[in-house]
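Standup notes
- HV: blocked on the assembly model, inputs below
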Amino acid sequence: MTLDQALPGPAGDTVRRRPGRRPNPVPYLLVLPALLLVAGLVGALLVLSLRSLEGAQGQVPSLAQYARIATSPHYLDHFTHSAWLAGAATLAAAVLGYPVAYYMERVGRPMRRAIMAFLAVVFFSDYVLRMFGLILVLGKTGIVNRLLVWSGAVDRPLSLMYNDFGVFVGLVSASLPFMILAINGVLARLDPRLPEAAALLGASPPRVFWHVTLPLSVPGIVSGGIIVFLLSLNSFVTPALLGGGFVEMVATFIYEQAINLFNLPLGAAAAMILFFVSMVLLVGVNGLFDRMGRRFGVREEGR
Amino acid sequence: MMLRLAAWLVLGLLALPVVTIVVTSFNATSSFAFPPEQWSLRWYRNVFDTPVFGSGLVMSLWLAAASSMIGLVAGTMTALAVVRYRFVGRGLVLSLVMAPLVVPEVVIGLSLLIWLQSVRWLSGNGAILLLHCLVVLPFVVRILVANLQRTDVNLEHAAMLLGANPVQAFVRVTLPTIAKGLAGALVFALVMSFHNFTATFFLVSTQQTLPVAIFQYIRTEHDPTIAALSTLLMVGAMVIVWVTDRLLGLERVTK
Amino acid sequence: MMVKARSVLLAAAALLAGIGGAEAQQKIVLQSWGGTWGDAMKEAWFEPFEKETGIQVELRPQGSMMDALAKLVAQKDRMDVDLWITGMTPTALADEAGILETIPRGKLTNAEHLPDALIGDKYVGVWNTIYGVAYNKETVPFPITKWSDLLDERLAGQVGIPHATGYGGKFILLLGWLGGGDVDNIDPAFEVAAQLKPNIGIISKSDPEAIKFLTSGEVDVAAMMPPGNFVQIREAGPQFEFVAPEPFVPANFNNFALLKGPNTEAAVKFIDFAISKQAQEELARRVLVIPANTQAAIPEELAPFAPPPERLRYPDEVAITKVLPDWAERWDRVIQGR
């Protein structure tokens, strides 16, 4: 779901414009409605950036809000803590997702389709409701605690949510479908002759996996990883429902500042920072990914 | 063997909340006891007796329908321009149209809220509709660009040679060949709008959408009504997956 | 051409008249809390008011006051809400944002029965409420009688508290008072907060959430609970108890704020009605608050919960408004992270 996935190659022989004529107005008319909609977003982002440049007494332009965030260890903490949680969730999703993605390539088509359909149902169901499911699983009266208390493993229910752990589990569970599908997408297009050749040359199955299959699936892990990392970094629902007020991430911090403290300029500045961090990550990793993709011989449009 | 175990374990973990929700929804008491001692459908009745869910559903459906239609028309036109023409700014147009997908949702939500404060002509519901159009636009463009690339422009040329004007050629020749893609894009757009929460949450005031109503209910009430509603929506999600598979092919969409 | 223009004008005039006709049934929109509070207002205020004046009142439920403020400011230029029941902190912020109308005191026949502190240009007090502790007698091993009981180590992870800006920061102030501080010396609050931290089980973002966490067993104690919420809590079972702890009980008033809405005049009439002796008593009885109108009797139902007046302590809310962002930051620094 990255940006350049949608960019098709040059229009090639379907191009209608002939040399030596005025630019054809038709394509511009065709893109006009969509651009009008996007103008709404661009305009809103401009207003947001203006608002973030307001000083404490409303004077413009001022970098006071940015300075306040940069000099407050507590404010910065929200960013580093979010990045830390998102990084941990990405790693866990990759480790947990890989076996499933790999397994899907090893089983027959009906099973593969069944798993795919299950993942799609999870993907198409409501995010808020999936977090509710986790509350039922992790809460003080949830099934995990009931099981633990019933089996005598603990005598008082454990605090499995309303802390970092709960938020981490929420982020991982929300990320897994994306990660599995991204990795599987690459594995499915892998040239089956490569591992076969390695096996023919005498490599044992684990060696084939570690030295051929796994390195070749890195692009899938990276593309899944960047989606998952950004989704986790920007997550609002998960910390709001599973953080219990103890775990603030950037998104809930922005909401708290802009809405609960009515400090729009500070909230706007935090939002602008989040926006830039996301963009830099996306563009940076995409560039890296393109180079890597070429190196590993994954074809451009095959992604 | 190890692989199979690991894969099923992960899938099991992913399924655990879903199974818990479905089982809980049939619990006769509000205690969340698991497994339930008695079974009942009372929470399903409660779903329909809770007015915010009804009005939320109406609001969400209305929004999804309106934004999908607007998004579908604007998105199809854009996809057509991008696939069939080469023009100055083509790459920029595509990046802009894809932008709502990469701007964090909190940022979109807050920026629209602030914008709403400073312009007179946009109403609260107007801003929410704009937001949802933006949410669905990238998906529509992406699906239709892929679809249009597979159609043969020569058929349109042939139709025009036979005397059709460009519009007729599009409607009679191209449209039928991308009909499945259009339908698939529509389904995707409807789902994406219907489930949008974070950005919408910033803009919603009194007329809540269904996900916002659910969020507030989870925060303030403690009974299995939400589990029953979840189960109903999950059945809906299954139907949608089935339809998407029919229209686009699951394996292609999920890539 | 002339004829056409005239007929268009006539049609427009007819249309306008039609709208005017529809408006004969006047309606005002009041933003306030729903649930128990909304039900009580409907019975005690809306219905008798409509009977008396023919003006309908529509309730717009709000979650938290600050959330409502952000949304109200967003619709500044097309305000469709006339009245707002809120607190002094949001009132001050709303006034700064320019969405409030001055309330004409001369038109309020019942204003003379309000204490001076409860009425100003932009606010009219509507009720006083106190804040105590609600807890589960079955799971808390000792009776809670004073605020410092919340620090007892037997309550580890069992206390629910409001978030930093909840009740306009008054829980922070309460801890400050307990540590010997006040609005201008808030440091002790954070020392007490650090002591309280091991016992905090959940931080709630709104009243209904706090009620849910207590009644669903997520925590055993809910600090900072108005008796009005206890009305709902005790429905969940006889094991719940309310106490107004020693040594003093924070109290504050909620107030009407008049928005720049479409029906200001009718809204002022409603304010006057709501602060009348009878309306005040009717409402107070249902949600266990102390009437703002000094002529109105304190409801008997509140007696078991309410401490003697000398134990009540009112904060300087306007002063808090200015320092609240700083408090919130320091508070989060102490409380957050697990």
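- HV (later): unblocked. The radius of gyration of chain A is 24 Å. Chain A touches chain C at residues 72, 74-75, 81, 139-141, 159, 162-164, 244-248, 256, 258-263 (CB under 8 Å).
- Next: hand off to the docking folks.
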